[in-house]
Amino acid sequence: MGRKRSSEFGIRIAGYKGNQNPRFGLRNAHSAFRNPHSAFTLTELLVVITIIAILAALITAGAVNALNAAKRARISVEINQLAQSMEDFKVGKQYGIYPPNGMNDSSNSFLGNSIYQMTIKDFERAFKKAFPRHQEPLGLIQRLGGATGTLSNGNPSALDNGLNGAEAIYFWLGGFSDDPQYPISGPGGPSFISTSVDGEILESRNRIYEFDLARLGPRTDAGVFDGRFITYNDPKDPSIERQINLWTYNPSGSERPYVYFDASRHDPMEYCINMTGLATSPDQIYALTKLREGFSSTATPVAKDYVFVNKNKFQILHAGLDDAWGDMSPFAMTQSNLPLILFPEGPFTGDVADTLTNFTPGTLESAQE
C-alpha cells in the first residue's frame, strides 16, 4: 500500500509543481503547440489585388473626369470672354455692329445672286459703320468679304471665300489703328509692310481682347506663321506692299481653333447650304440653326422657318476636348438630301456631341432636349 501511494504521489508530482493547477498546466501545454495562422492563399491574394485594381481604376477615372471637366470649363470661360469682347466691339468701342465673316462658298448662289456678293456688301457696310472716315482700299474690304477676280482698288491678293470663321476672331478682336482714316493700315492695325525686316510685330496691335499670343496659329515647327494671308497696296503709298496674316486662336492644349459666326445679318436660307467656318479645311464647320420662335410643332417647316441660334448676335464654337468637329450639319434646303440637325433637339452624337458654344453652359450633348 505504501508503494502504491508513493507511485501515485510521484505521478501526481509529475503533473504539477507546488500548488499549480494541473488542468491549467495541461491547457498551457496545449496552447504552446497550437499551429500559427496560415499565410494568404493565392485566391485571397488575387481577390485583394482585384479590389485594389478596381479602387485604383475608380480613383483614376474620377481624376480623369475631374480633369476633363476642368478643361471644358476653362474653354467655356474663354469662349464667354471672347463673346464679351465681341459685345465690347459693338458697344464699348462704339463700332455699332457685330463683325461679319465670309462663311460661304463663292460658287453658291441664292435667288440668282452669288452668295459672296451678299457678304461683300456686309463687309463694306461694316467698315463704313465702324470706321466712317476710313480711306482703306475698297478692293481690300471686298476681298475680305469673298470677292473674286481682279480688284484694281488696292490690288489685293486672292482670298478664297473671304475671311472665314476661324480667322475672324483674331482679325476683329486683335484690334485696329487709332487712325480714323486707316484702321487697317495705320499703326496698331492688323497689317504690316510685307518686306519689313522686322516682319509682323504682334505686340503692336491695339487688342480688344488680351490674346495669349503663343496660342495664335497656324505655325511651322519653328514657330513661323503658316496660315492664309492677304497682300495689298498701301493706300498712302501704292509702291509699298502691306500684308495681313490671318491668324487663328486655339485653346490651351487644343489643335482646333475657336470659330466665329455672324448671326446678326441674315437667315440660313440666304446662305443656301454652304455656310463654312473653315473654308479651306476638310472640316466643314456650320453655324447652328433652330426653328423660329412661335413655330407650331404640328406644322411642317419651310426654309424661312429656320433661324440661326443666337439670332441677331453671333456664335462662337469650339470642337471640344476630342478636337474633332464631327458631322456639322449645314442648313438643308428642301431639294437637299443633307441631314438637318437643329438646336436644341439634336441629336448631337459622336464627335459633335462635346462641342462647346457661347450659348450653352456646357456641351451640345448636355444641352439637347
TrEMBL record:
Name of the protein described by the UniProt record: Type II secretion system protein G
Pfam families per the UniProt record, alphabetical: N_methyl
Organism: Bythopirellula goksoeyrii
Alphabetical list of InterPro entries matching this protein: N_methyl_site (IPR012902), Pilin-like (IPR045584)
Listed Gene3D superfamilies: Glycoprotein, Type 4 Pilin (3.30.700.10)
Highest rank taxon of the organism: Bacteria
Keywords linked to the UniProt accession: Membrane, Transmembrane, Transmembrane helix
Membrane-spanning segments: 45-67
